[in-house]
Amino acid sequence: GECDLQNLSFEHGKSESRFIEEKRTFEPEDIGPNIQLHMNRCILCYRCVMVADQLTDDRVHGVMDRGDHSNISTCISKAIDNEFSGNMIDVCPVGALTDKTFRFKSRVWFNKPYDAHRDCPTCSGKVTVWMFGGEIQRVTGRKDEYHEVDEFICNSCRFDHKEVTDWVIEGPRKFEKDSVINQNNYTQKLEKVLINTEETILQGRLEDRKKISMAEIDYNEKIDGNPLNSKQNG
Q: Taking the model in full, what pTM does it have?
């Protein structure tokens, strides 16, 4: 539900793959307590590597090997444990990096995104909380209309604060380009449908009333020689 590459493929690409060669497969690799790596999904865009280089001075992961053996991994199977490592999840366009604390909890389109903030000494504290019912299922960085992260957040905000009381809820997330999950988009469409339906019903009732009022009934008209307004003799 959140793969940008999948959205582009459905809109502009083919339904079947033109790749006929054998595809690479990788064994699962544990890169930390909060992030799950799915190398079979990775397209080697290097976005997670560049973000990690920009946010931290301690580089522990990158592109290993060369050519068709290239893959994203950690140095000597070391866990990624820096304070801003969770932002790699937000910038991954294909879901190769996912949040372990959110896995198998709920489909993303069942959750409602809300902008929220808190006082955080490490980052801006401005996030998007994804709620199902009255519970926060996950926390992500805010994104603009082009699905790019506005401000990076720390792991404490992302993984440790999952209670509604931890946050000041600002309201539904703003409209996002090509998003089918956004609550505002659904609300606008539903309101439009309701308004159109009400107008159609009222217009239909008005036309029925006009037809009834315009109909002229001749009570003196006779059927079988008897006027309509006369009572039959017992």
A: 0.69
Number of domains in the chain: 3
Same domain, 100 and 121: no
Q: How far is CA 21 from the centre of its chain?
A: 33
Same domain, 18 and 99: yes
Residue 27 burial by Cβ neighbours in a 10 Å radius (0-12, 13-18, 19+) = exposed
Q: What is the pLDDT along the chain (234 residues), one digit of tens a residue?
A: 677 777 777 778 777 778 888 888 888 777 888 999 898 988 888 898 888 888 877 777 778 878 877 888 876 566 787 889 899 999 998 889 999 999 888 888 889 999 999 999 999 999 999 999 889 999 999 988 778 899 999 999 999 999 999 999 999 886 555 554 544 444 444 444 444 555 555 666 666 666 666 555 555 555 555 655 555 544
Quote the domain boundaries for residue 81: 1-104
In-domain check, residue 135: yes
Q: In 3-state terms, what secondary structure has residue 36?
A: strand
